[in-house]
Amino acid sequence: MKVLLVDDEKHVRDAIRLLVNWKQHGIETILEAQDGESAIEIVNREHPAIIMTDMMMPIMNGVKLLEWLHTHAPNSKTIVISGHDDFSLLRHTLKYGGTDYILKPIDPEQLNEALDKAIHAWNKDEELRHTNRELNIEMNQIKPMYWDKLLSNLIAEPSAYEQAAEQLEKELHLSRTIRECRVAILSLDTMERSVKNKFSHNLDLLLFSLINICNEFLVNDQRGYAFRHWNSDNEIVLLLWKDQSGSEAFLAKINEGIRTALHTRVDFGIGSSQSFPTDLALSYQEARNALRQRNLKAKETWIHSTLKTAKTVQPALTFSQYEERIQLAIRSGSIDQIQETVQAWMDAVKLSEAITLEQLDHWWREYRVMKRRWVQQFFSNISEDQVKQLLLDEPSSLIVPLDEYGILSLSLWQQELTRSIVHLSKLLLESQQKDKSVIFEIAEFLEKHYHEDVSLQDIANRFYLSREYISRKFKQEFEVNLSDYLGQIRMSKAKVLLRNPHLRISQVAEMVGYQDEKYFSKVFKKLEGLTPNEYRKTANSI
Length: 542
Description:
Elements: E1 2-6, H1 10-19, E2 29-33, H2 36-46, E3 50-53, H3 62-72, E4 77-82, H4 87-95, E5 98-103, H5 108-156, H6 161-172, E6 180-187, H7 193-198, H8 203-218, E7 224-228, E8 235-240, H9 247-262, E9 268-270, E10 274-275, H10 280-292, E11 303-305, H11 323-332, H12 335-350, H13 357-378, H14 384-390, H15 410-449, H16 456-463, H17 467-478, H18 482-498, H19 505-511, H20 517-528, H21 532-541
Parallel strand pairs: 1-2, 1-3, 3-4, 4-5, 9-11
Antiparallel strand pairs: 6-8, 6-9, 6-10, 7-8
């Protein structure tokens, strides 16, 4: 905390320095001025919390200084130290915010009490200022969300306008006399990928920046307002209620501002003028359709309306027509085969005269559904959470691959599709190799532990796999059931042991994992065609 001592007599300033225990009051800096004018310079530069001033000084006296402080430094607390017992000076001190009036010669106790009182008042005011700053910050954060929700709701529920009309006029200059309005939409779906990648970890910041740029033009001209659509993660909606015939030209002006700030342009969809607020939803839907139905293979304009949208009849091309070919390519593990299959799809796409966002979104959704189905087929032993983990390389929403001119880049799309399919194929190969490895580990385990009472459940617990999965994969790899494979190992070991005439049949049975001699004999005869005794006689006679 800083204190300023203002007095034309140096010995008075020195006396005040000696009479106050500054550290006890938390005072870190003591400043000095010999008149009102020099005091003003210091106040402007240092912003002291407490000012102790004399009233009778040359150049600018304490009376004028108090008046100046009251206007230009209202947060500072002022203590007057004067040699004049004058009621008019006391009244002037109180009028202009002074906290105390002390007479010279200075009483140390009175001075310290006055300083303590002033500091307490300053701290109390500072707490209030801090609270107000925090509230203002909070309000500034909440306010945009409030307008987002209110205006988004206005599109869906026009009847909500009457309750908010007065506030809209006061805050956004949306006059009650407005009878018509146009809706424009800026969507992140078709922004350049480089820009979206730059903000990939904070799309909220990108939306915030775009909205601010739009409103710099709209609000300053009082012709509209931009807000984040509450029901969409990627849409910014612009309400245009002034000079509607010039809206397209004004959107182009905003687009130029976006290009200057973010080094990119964006596509706007715009609806026709409709009754406000009753038909806002109609203008909004027109703007949305204009964006979704524009031809992404050409860039004639950045501003799109349904009146200008080409009505091209599209061939019935679906991604699902290529599902079997793509699935076979994935299973093949051949990058060449995958590239050839993707090329066949892209060749079919190139035959389309126009590709709309709507069509692209449909193909993308088809691919998402197919990829999920493939993952569930290829990795049948995994949980739903693991399925989601394997699909993490896919974006949660459509990212349109555009070139620097805002035109759909089929080559970028082909690269991305190829990358995605090759990635899935590699995961499948890794899984197959891992499956094969673990099955051989199970077979090796059986070779070492054939003499123990080993069950399928024991193996499942040991290798953290399901019994069904082990049974299926084991049969695929060895073309025999796991139980039969274990039986073959045991019989092979039993035939070796039976050659020893000193071992009883019951001992041999126990040594190869059978506690029941009769059951062992039954299994042995089924597999070898002879009883253990018959085999022993035959083997020992050779």
